[in-house]
Design a protein that fits this description.
Elements (H helix, E strand, L loop, with lengths): L1 H33 L16 H26 L3 H32 L1
Helix pairs in contact: 2-3
């Protein structure tokens, strides 16, 4: 029963955060339009994003984190939960940082 309660609470929290974000963004845009301003000032036209690269690198980092966590658990007697969780977050975060630098380099190349 605890697992069901935790799952429902986690889903509700995620839904609530997304809902508040979308509603507040909508209200900001409506307020700009009512004042006669263009809502396009909220978007950055110069920024080019590569979501496929970002998600690909994140998933590769997570997979490497799982493999490294398993290796730490098996050979170095780490706690299984700590090893997996720490390595997934560490390598997932590193992959996102590397992705940032790659996107920044590609952005500079496109603007030159």
């Amino acid at each position: 029963m605890n697992g069901v309660i935790i799952s429902v609470a986690a889903f509700s929290a995620i839904f609530g955060i997304v809902y508040v974000f979308l509603v507040s963004r909508h209200r900001e845009r409506i307020a700009l339009i009512e004042k006669g301003l263009d809502a396009s000032i909220l978007s950055d036209k110069n920024y080019t994003s590569y979501p496929t690269l970002k998600f690909g690198m994140l998933f590769v980092g997570i997979a490497l984190g799982i493999l490294l966590g398993n290796w730490l658990d098996h050979y170095y007697d780490f706690s299984k939960g700590v090893a997996f969780l720490a390595m997934v977050f560490l390598l997932g975060g590193i992959s996102l940082i590397v992705n940032f630098f790659i996107e920044r380099k590609l952005s500079k190349k496109n603007h030159d």
